[in-house]
Specification:
The complex is a heterodimer of chains A (222) and B (672). Chain A is built from eight helices and no strands. Chain A is mainly α. In chain A, α1 runs antiparallel to α2, α1 packs antiparallel against α6 and α2 runs parallel beside α6. Chain A starts with a helix and ends in a 5-residue tail after the last helix. Chain B folds into three domains: 523 residues, no CATH class; 41 residues, no CATH class; 46 residues, no CATH class. A two-stranded antiparallel ribbon of chain B has the order 1-2. In chain B, strands 3-4 form a two-stranded antiparallel ribbon. In chain B, β1 and β2 form a beta hairpin. Classes of the chains: A mainly alpha (222), B mainly alpha (672).
Chain lengths: 222, 672
């Protein structure tokens, strides 16, 4: 009983930490710091997944944790760092919406996902319930990051953090096959490569990775 | 020995095979002859199979599950008495149309646009009637709609046909949507779409009312209930004439089958307000349909409008059956239901006959406008004779079949004082009066058709040089005319053949008519009324022949040819004859001012001016102008507004997705 309560508390803390770091992402207005926060996000995810592996006694989840640690906490942030440096955009980031409004919206989203998940999954395992509620919050916050940023790199980061939320949800539920997780992880890596190439192409063409340049190119008003 | 339903499915497979074969053969010289004769043979075989089932005494419904369609569910098909009756209607119409097509199809310029779809259309109609689960039903229904759409578009370069096809397609999709929702409601939360499961599930009154409304929209739009009829007078005439006959005479019946299957069979015991709705809509459809027909001068469009009237009549009768059934009055319910089915059969006979006749006129003159025809009785005597029979039959005059079914309907209307609800007690006689009005107007309308087209003098060179059509087309018309007469003088066997359907759907039947003396029919009891078609025909024949005898015996034998009295005008031109518009003018004055906003504009030149005076008739289709044009305007307007969504920025698209997601989650959070 004592053990269960401890397991519950730790996984709760880690999932809650993930939501907190998602919030931190919302107010970063420098690309480097945003990337650092994202790396932290992935690190906490890896810890959370590893803890799930421990308490669910599911060794394959350790593989997921390692994938999260290696790819998301190391390879992708480092890669993005290099891209930002090569593009020379490490100085500029502007969010489309003010930070205060963004934070308020984020709080609303978290409240929504809590209300929804706790009500919908009334008769589920309490651990999975909390996990799912946090995971939905992380997904929604990731979407919010994508919507409120103009820079393509920060939209990529929002997308990756959204995916972290999916992994959190998947590992919280017992019995998720490893194949699914690995395929998700690889698809994310491929998406990262594609987006990286794409960023350079945009940059070559428009001398900027601000997506509004694309809109200007299409002759649209913003 | 294969079961009846399996044999029927073999027939359907044969029709589908013919449709594929037609793609190969359609450009060859023998394509038309091969395909139509093969289709006729298959239809006759299917007809024999269905008749054997219907007449073969009580038999259990036979089912068949084909391993196609949705995995693990399969496609269910079943033959019961109701299906067998409608299969008779479909395949009889199909065989007659194929026979007619053997002759008529020779004049077809683009056979490759007609031949592949003709057997497919027949196969689709057979399948709809056989389907025994909602998925198969909807699939076959759509197949039937699309095949008929392709036939409507066969002559797509002629003016107006493309528009007709478009409106038909829109209305057909709308109807299928309504059917889809109706079946969704019927299946309920358990989600079993088999008809057997739906039949055994009790339905709440709300669901029943909603399903009725959806069926009136879905099946009603295909059958042509006012105000969903707008596509029908456009699409039916646009197709080649034998296809028009199938669409008007048979496809509307398949829609009525769908209505009966769902409302009578699947919904279980009806409630009386449902019957009031069906009665009201049927009555309005009957009167409006025939008034539209009265105003029309295009022969095929007139026939299409008359189909709307007949569908209205059938729906009135079905409404009566629902009313009596809701109150547990078994015998009157069986009477009204039998009358409706009888009229279904009759209408398929005479409407096919009339469309064939219109096709014959079209082939030999190239005209559909009655005001450019006239005097065809001298040039096409045989066609005129069968058209006369068709006109008399559809005008519900004895001794033909139309009279019998409408007489049965009025017998059912006369039972209305026994209904307990005051609303129905008042409504049924009122609808009966509308039925009588529609019948009288139909008679006037077909006097116009026959008088203007076949009598008088030719109004155009095309009508002057018309020649009789080929013998095969004539044979098809004569067979249908004979059926009209046969069903009119021997209604008893027909009613007995319909009784298994009434037993299956309502649990009651009319007394056996075969034992009645002198071939009369006595639907309720001797004191309530009886009819003997044979006696009436003998009476008519004796009266007519004695009149002829007395005229020839006692009148002068000298043949004199003298100038006709020309109302004071000497040497009148044929165009000055009484035209369709003139014939309809009194009725246009009485009803048209209100219902069509009809106005006559007379352009009278000043004295001394030599230009001719002109009469212009202004007619408005109010259903189209007040209902459909606003809807199409609103759709166009919102499409213009929504078009902006095509040109948003990436971030706005993301925001839209995000906002949609959050909204859906909010809805879930508030509702659950």
């Amino acid at each position: 009983m004592q053990m269960h309560s401890l397991a519950f508390d730790v996984s709760h803390t880690l999932a809650g930490g993930l939501v907190l770091i998602s919030f931190m992402m919302l107010y970063q207005d420098r690309l480097y710091s945003l990337l650092n926060v994202f790396a932290l996000h992935a690190l906490v995810l890896a810890l959370s997944v590893a803890w799930q592996a421990y308490i669910q006694d599911a060794p394959h989840l350790y593989v997921t944790a390692v994938i999260a640690l290696v790819f998301k906490a190391l390879v992708i942030p480092v890669g993005l760092h290099r891209i930002v440096k090569q593009l020379g955009i490490h100085r500029d980031i502007e969010s489309a919406v003010g930070i205060g409004m963004t934070m308020l919206a984020g709080m609303g989203l978290v409240a929504l996902s809590m209300v929804l998940m706790l009500r919908v999954t009334a008769d589920a395992d309490p651990l999975a319930r909390e996990d799912l509620a946090f995971a939905l919050s992380v997904v929604l916050l990731g979407l919010l990051v994508m919507v409120t940023r103009r820079n393509a790199v920060s939209q990529v980061v929002g997308f990756m953090s959204l995916e972290n939320g999916l992994v959190l949800a998947a590992t919280g539920a017992k019995g998720m096959p490893l194949v699914v997780e690995i395929s998700v992880a690889f698809s994310i890596l491929i998406a990262f490569i594609v987006i990286g190439i794409f960023l350079f192409r945009i940059r070559e063409r428009f001398d900027s990775v601000d997506v509004s340049a694309l809109d200007d190119f299409r002759g649209e008003r913003r | 020995m294969m079961s009846a339903v399996a044999l029927q499915m073999v027939g359907v497979a044969g029709l589908l095979g013919l449709s594929v074969l037609a793609i190969v053969l359609s450009r060859s010289k023998f394509g038309t002859a091969v395909i139509y004769s093969a289709t006729m043979v298959v239809c006759l075989a299917a007809l024999a199979n269905a008749l054997r089932w219907l007449l073969g005494g009580p038999a259990d419904a036979a089912g068949l599950i084909l391993p196609v369609g949705l995995p693990w569910l399969g496609a269910h098909f079943r033959m019961d008495a109701l299906a067998a009756f409608f299969l008779v209607v479909v395949n009889l119409g199909g065989a007659a149309a194929s026979l007619y097509g053997l002759g008529y199809g020779r004049h077809e310029h683009t056979p490759h646009r007609v031949l592949p779809f003709f057997p497919a259309f027949l196969a689709g109609m057979n399948l709809v009637v056989l389907a025994d689960d909602a998925f198969s039903y909807l699939l076959c229904w759509e197949f039937m709609s699309l095949a008929s759409w392709a036939l409507v578009m066969a002559h797509h370069r002629e003016a107006g046909n493309a528009k007709a096809g478009y409106i038909y397609l829109v209305m057909a999709s709308f109807g299928t949507l309504a059917l889809l929702l109706a079946f969704g409601l019927l299946a309920g939360p358990t989600g079993d779409y088999g008809f057997a499961a739906i039949r055994n599930t009790p339905h709440t009154p709300h669901v029943a009312a909603l399903v009725l409304i959806l069926m009136l929209l879905g099946a009603g739009s295909k059958a042509g209930l006012v105000p969903l009829h707008v596509w029908l007078p456009l699409a039916h005439p646009a197709a080649p004439s034998h296809v028009s006959a199938l669409m008007s005479g048979v496809m509307t019946k398949v829609a009525i089958y769908g209505f009966i299957r769902v409302v009578f069979d699947l919904l279980g015991q009806p409630s009386w307000p449902i019957s009031a709705v069906v009665l009201g809509i049927g009555g309005i459809t009957a009167v409006m349909g025939i008034l539209y027909a009265m105003m029309e001068s295009d022969l095929k469009r007139l026939l299409a409008y008359s189909t709307i009237e007949n569908v209205g009549i059938i729906f009135v009768s079905l409404g009566l059956a629902l009313a009596f059934q809701a109150n547990g009055q078994k015998l009157p319910a069986a009477l009204a239901f039998t009358a409706a089915l009888f009229h279904v059969l009759n209408h398929s006979f005479f409407k096919s006959l009339l469309f064939f006749g219109a096709g014959a006129v079209l082939t030999s003159t190239g005209e559909r406008d009655m005001d450019k025809l006239g005097g065809l009785i001298h040039r096409m005597p045989l066609t005129s004779f069968v058209m006369l029979i068709g006109c008399v039959a559809i005008s519900a005059l004895p001794p033909f079949n139309g009279f019998v079914s409408e007489w049965l309907m009025f017998q059912a209307v006369l039972q209305s004082p026994e209904l307990p609800q005051w609303a129905l007690k008042i409504m049924v006689p009122a609808v009966g009066a509308m039925l009588a009005l529609a019948a009288a107007l139909a008679a006037a309308c077909f006097v116009k058709v026959f008088g203007v087209t076949f009598l008088g003098r030719p109004r155009s060179p095309a009508a002057e040089t018309a020649v009789e059509v080929d013998r095969i087309s004539l044979a098809a018309m004569f067979i249908l005319a004979a059926l009209c007469l046969l069903a009119g003088i021997l209604p008893g066997p027909v009613m007995d053949a319909l009784s298994p359907v009434a037993v299956e759907i309502l649990g009651s039947r009319l007394p056996v008519q075969a034992h009645m003396p002198w071939l009369s029919i006595v639907p309720m009891s001797e004191s309530r009324g009886s009819y003997n078609g044979l006696l009436v025909m003998v009476f008519i024949a004796i009266c007519a022949s004695s009149a002829v005898y007395f005229i020839h015996r006692f009148a002068s034998h000298a043949l004199r040819r003298g100038p006709a009295w020309g109302c004071g005008f000497a040497d009148s031109v044929p165009a000055a004859q009484y035209s369709g518009g003139s014939f309809a003018q009194p009725i246009r004055r009485v009803f048209g001012t209100l219902l069509f906003h009809a106005r006559d504009h007379v352009d009278m030149p000043a004295p001394g001016d030599t230009r001719p005076a002109r009469l212009r008739i202004e007619l408005h289709d109010l259903v189209w102008e007040k209902l459909y044009q606003p809807i199409s305007g609103a759709v166009g307007f919102s499409a213009d507004r929504l078009n902006r969504l095509q040109f948003l920025t990436i971030r706005r698209y993301l925001s839209l997705v995000f906002a949609t997601l959050v909204t859906l989650l909010l809805v879930l959070a508030i509702w659950s």
